[in-house]
Amino acid sequence: FFCSGVIFSDSDFSCIDRLPSCVRGPAMAHVTFVARSMDGLILVETWDDSNKVSANLKSQAKQLLRKMQNMPPKCSVDCAGNQVFHYSVETGIVYMALYDNNYPKNLAFAFLDDIQKLFQEELKREFGTGSVDYRSHIETIEKPYYFIKFDRQITKKKMEYRDPNSSKALQRLNTSLNDVQSIMRQNMNEILERGENLGSVSDKASKLREGSNDFRKMTRTLSFQTLIQKYGVPVVLVLVVLLIVCLKFWKR
């Protein structure tokens, strides 16, 4: 069997994990994030060490997490290298994973749905059950990776989605209620550029406000100077006359 110039014997198929992705099919999530949607604070992240993710893509992922307040609740974001970020936002928390483009979209969002359910159980263990407002607890977290131990559960769940053609994955796909056809698809570069443009507009608006304030100050100064030029001499003359009159009465 040939793949990318490498010859495999029949015995090599006894361990499917050693085969390259072209033989195994689309890989599971390369990276998974659970983060706070209001500012992108990462609560936990899990990387697949067998797949190399570029530093640029890691940086883009963190930028994307910080822009969630201006994004739809569910979306697929295309990246360079035929990869895509799928994410879902629930009650102030974003669940995001990076996949190859050929990985089934239904399974990707089914995986995120499972992670969301597991994380809700983690919140119950951390903050208690009952009528607890977990979102308010999440909003008060100051340090990143607060739920770093949760990465074990993410890794375990990823293994169930490792082979999209397995019976378990197909069963999960059939029972999934996610309607992925209506989920929006966007481009990473467009999102980042849009953020830069919004930042530029914000800077220009800020400078315009500062210029307006400076103009108002200058207007008040010019108005005061105009008043002095118009009434300054008469006022001085009146003050001089009053002073002379006061002195005469004083001498008496």
Mind explaining what this structure looks like?
This protein is an alpha+beta fold. The chain is 51% helix and 17% strand. It has helices at 21-24, 55-65, 105-127, 134-140, 151-160, 167-175, 188-251, and strands at 2-3, 6-7, 31-36, 42-47, 74-79, 83-90, 93-100, 184-187. The strands form two sheets. It has a six-stranded mixed β-sheet, with helices on both faces. Strands 1-2 form a two-stranded antiparallel sheet. Strand 1 (2-3) and strand 2 (6-7) form a beta hairpin. The longest helix has 64 residues, at 188-251.
Structural category: alpha+beta
Stretches where pLDDT is under 50 for at least 5 consecutive residues are 1-25, 197-202
Helix amount: 40-55%
Rg: 32 Å
Largest sheet: 6 strands, mixed
What order do the helices and strands follow? EEHEEHEEEHHHHEH
Shape category: elongated
Number of helices: 7
Distance between the termini: 127 Å
Strand content: 15-25%
Provide the residue-averaged pLDDT.
Answer: 77
Oligomer: single chain
Q: Record the strand order, biggest sheet.
A: 4-3-7-6-5-8
Q: What is the count of β-strands?
A: 8
